[in-house]
Amino acid sequence: MREIKISKKKKKSTSTLVLLFIIFELTFTAITGPFMVYYGPFKNVKTTVVGAAMTTLTLQWLATSFLSDKKIEQIMSEQKMESIVQDKTDGENSGVTVENKDDNNIERYDVKGNKFKGYILIINDPTRIKVGYSSMLGEEGQLTSDIAKDNNAIAAINGGGFTDEVAGSKWTGTGANPAGIIMTGGKTVYNGIKNENEKRQVVALTGSGRLLVGLHSIKEMKELGTTEAVSFGPALIVNGKKTITTGDGGWGIAPRTAIAQRKDGAIILLVIDGRQVNSLGATLREVQDLLFDEYGAYNATNLDGGSSSTLFYNDEVINRPSDSLGERSVPSIIYVEK
Amino acid sequence: MKWMKRISIWIVFSLSLQCLGLFYIDKYILATDSKVASKKVVEDVSKAEEIVDITVPEKAETVLVSYDAKYLTYYEDENLKLVNCKDGKIKNINAEEGSKICFSEWLPDRNRILLVERKTGNESSNLVLYSYDVLKNEKVIVKELGWSGSKSEVENIQTSPLTGVIYIQVSNEGLSSSIYRIDRMGEINKKNTIPKLVSNIAVLRREDKLVYEGSVYNKIYVTNTDENIKDESISIEGVDRLTLIGAQNDNVYLAELKDDLVSKIYYGKTSEDTSTWKELDLQNPSKEKDLFVSADGKVYQNDELRGVVTEISSGIETSYEGELSQMYTKGIVSLVNNKVSFVPFK
């Protein structure tokens, strides 16, 4: 009898101990966690948390209650991108000389980093690059692959951004309402920018096949002989210089789409998969570094990412769009003529 | 002393766990990825395939074709099979280990299937939603739905690929319905419906709105984007019983029921007054199950005995052989002695 009593008691005290242990660990971690994040040696974690908190109005207290304003400012400034103005003149001084006009080749590469998978197409002749758009603009967007097929394109990536909600319901944007400008074949198809002199982030191509990235006004684009344009950014490489030299770009990890141009005029299209088990996605910094270090980009810019990121090639979507329903409808695409 | 020691160990445990976790995030997930490998891809030129006849086994159940009829699925001994209609090749769509596929639905505009799986042998378990990309032959998990009893069944999945919203209708032993909404960010929530038991649902194309039909009184409701506003009921003056037959291009299609037969169809937008909705009169009263609304908004009526499908507004008839299996965007799928026959609409 006695033995049994003891073992019962023992059992009870072990389970109390386990419970106490769990409660202690939870409270202790909750209290010390923020200090570990903000004052610990983990720089990337700190900048990401501060960046994410400060860019969301309702979450700013997450950073402000633990760090001084000065400290936050310092951390945020590490994320700043340099704003480099692209050389104005078209032709020799622009740094880009189109060498391979009428070259019909496309090279395809698969890229693999530690946490992402990507796809690259290199188009030697930049004058084959055009902007396509949804035939139901204002009502609904269309799939990148469908707009590409309608334009008899060999390859395409998704283009500019759009309003991502319908009547107050978030994330349900149908790609109907583009943001900024859409220009194709020298004609303006959509223009949400009222002021001709207002500088906005653009992705554009001139008639001679030069890629324009970063801040340009509509007036400026016209002067440079722009024929194709959508609005998006930020510019990642301008005049052969990186715009992100400290921090990761501040946009977090996500699926990405980007376009770049080499010195010889060749256009690089890049799509990186994200929000998936074997490909989390990439930061803007990683996109920039990949295009600069591995592919010798001279000018490069980011395009609409997330679930919009799509790469169409040879009648097939070759990347894996992140939505569970697959490819998403978008207002505009950038495509390669056959 | 004993407690001091214990607490110190606990503190060390928590701190080292935090450090480990943060270290991993810092050095792996958030570190700038500089090691990138590139591989040139050379395309192989494939030959054109022969077009073959497609037959399904005798015991095949629920034969369903994709939106463009390039693929079809059926169940054989409770296993889901996928057939490429071009070359007749058959693939298995496998459930996760210890689970069974209990519902599958083709998406309305692409070759992709939504699957719901349930653990076998369990009295109650989670239903899990998967998305299967036919072209890439890949299955990914979308979301776990709520806990449900073994007798609850998925009855319907409706999606709008444009808004990225999925609605799933689950019947709880025929007593009540659970309707789940999943958005493109993977967020899931349960919609409260006015009648607890729902018989049919449909989603609008460009707007995040669900239309549903109450099971007992055949009343039709449409949800509001703002959760705080009560679902609106849709009624048509002078019509006693309505049934929901579908939604296409933001038009809702409702049929008037008289003695369980349909002789008139009303359609229009939920934002418009139903008195301005358009009407379609049926020459011969039809059962609800013989009506089909195609993606371009045409309504078709099947006459089983004659083997004819009629487009109601124009009266154009398309005849088919065998037993009608399904109508899809471009035509009719019928089974003629287990051979699958595709007849485009005239």
Element layout with pairings:
The complex is a heterodimer of chains A (338) and B (346).
Chain A (H helix, E strand, L loop, with lengths): L1 H38 L3 H12 L6 H4 L4 H9 L28 E7 L4 E7 L5 E5 L8 E2 H7 L2 E6 L6 E2 L2 E2 L10 E4 L2 E5 L8 E7 L4 E6 L1 H6 L2 E6 L3 E4 L2 E2 L13 E7 L4 E6 L11 H11 L2 E7 L7 E3 L2 E2 L11 E2 L1 E6 L1
Antiparallel strand pairs in A: 1-2, 2-16, 3-21, 4-20, 5-18, 5-21, 6-7, 8-9, 8-12, 10-11, 10-12, 13-14, 13-17, 15-16, 15-17, 18-19
Chain B lengths: L1 H28 L7 E5 L19 E5 L5 E6 L2 E6 L5 E4 L5 E8 L5 E8 L4 E10 L4 E12 L3 E8 L4 E8 L3 E7 L5 E4 L6 E6 L6 E5 L5 E3 L9 E3 L7 E7 L2 E8 L2 E9 L8 E9 L4 E3 L5 E5 L4 E4 L5 E3 L3 E6 L2 E6 L2 E6 L2
Antiparallel strand pairs in B: 2-3, 3-4, 4-5, 6-7, 7-8, 8-9, 10-11, 11-12, 12-13, 14-15, 15-16, 16-17, 18-19, 19-20, 20-21, 22-23, 23-24, 24-25, 26-27, 27-28
Describe this structure in words.
The complex is a heterodimer of chains A (338) and B (346). Chain A has 2 domains: 2-77, no CATH class; 92-337, no CATH class. With 338 residues, chain A is an alpha+beta fold. In chain A, strand 6 (165-166) and strand 7 (169-170) form a beta hairpin. Chain A has helices spanning 2-39, 43-54, 61-64, 69-77, 144-150, 218-223, 284-294; strands spanning 106-112, 117-123, 129-133, 142-143, 153-158, 165-166, 169-170, 181-184, 187-191, 200-206, 211-216, 226-231, 235-238, 241-242, 256-262, 267-272, 297-303, 311-313, 316-317, 329-330, 332-337. In chain A, 26% of the residues lie in helices and 29% in strands. Chain B has 346 residues and is mainly beta. Chain B has 1 helix and 28 strands. Chain B is globular and about 90 Å long. Classes of the chains: A alpha+beta (338), B mainly beta (346). Chains A and B meet through helix 1, helix 2, strand 1, strand 7 and helix 7 of A and helix 1, strand 1 and strand 9 of B.
